[in-house]
Amino acid sequence: MSTDTDTVVAKYLTVGGATVDVTDTRIEGRYGTAQRAVHAACSGAGCTSSFTGTGHGWDDTVPYAAAAFTDALRQLNEDAQAHAETCRAMPFGGTQ
Ligand SMILES: [Zn+2]
Question: What is the pTM of this model?
Answer without folding.
Answer: 0.78
